Queue: 3 jobs
Job 1
Amino acid sequence: MNRVPIEGIKLAREALKSRLEVKEVYVAQSRLQEGYIQGVLKQAERFSPEVVLVADRIFKALADTETPQGIVVLVKLPQFQLGDVIRHSSLVLIAHQLQDPGNLGTVIRSAEARCSSHPEYGQLFESKGS
């Protein structure tokens, strides 16, 4: 399917600022009128995603976090060939089976600080339930 859910307001905003293409936005019914949710929906308009309003009890089952923030965006992962990345990059970082997603953020920030101004993200995204 080549799509991945991104949950929470901060990650949703980051996904919208990136080159990831937003396909769908799921919003908890009770949170629809909140300012930060409206802000994300406004940002997402350029992709014309399908916006799905979800009953709160269903949203809790949909979300991976213990205290959902009321929004999940479904993004299309970019396609790339490893050979192209290696040929055009001064640094290639491969993270395999990291246990804590926060560690990946630290590794990426360190790599960017070292020498990479345009990181390419591949199959980085995996929900906690996977």
Job 2
Amino acid sequence: MAIKVDMRKCMGCRICEMACSLVNYNESNTKKSAIRINESHKMIGTFDVVYCNQCGICAKKCPVNAIIKEGKNWRIDEQLCTNCGICIEACPRKTIFEFEGFQSPIKCCGCNECAKVCPVQAITVVG
């Protein structure tokens, strides 16, 4: 299921990023997180949260159909992915990205661990 973020509640702790990388890559490396927290340039002490809303546009653009729907979420099949980058360019929210050494881009798989660990409930599961 998709997540929704109330950016007014986000305090920038990055616990969601750590949980994402731990669950999906077995290490606490926020650079491997599919959810990203950036300081907002609008007001000091506020944050912009970059996250996938599971819209599926990336899947429609993938030339080898490597982005597969499982339930309400889209995930990248690493065995089918050619790492061409078309999904990265197609993503309207810019949430899919390459990580050096990976054979396919990083994209939210819909595990929702980020919502489970958010201490201020800024992240909720929808759908």
Job 3
Amino acid sequence: MPKTLTKPVTVVNEKGLHARTAAQIVAEVQRFPGAVLFVERDGYKVDGRSVLGLLTLSAAQGTILTLHVSGKDAEALLTALTGLFASGFLSDTPE
């Protein structure tokens, strides 16, 4: 059975997790085909490849989500996603 890496992350951007930020998560997952992501909030897990699923988490600013990553690219994906969350999704604010 493959090992699953787990890490809590906080939604720091002002607008929370919305369509654009969810799409950024999905894009990161697609960059690592050897990894599988599930995102959890309060015991409810969704597939990290689904924008709609991620939106159902209703994650406002300050929400703590838990990332569950497995597969051969798990560490790389977890590092990329941790950076994305820590940066507030970089492009979340209009220029």
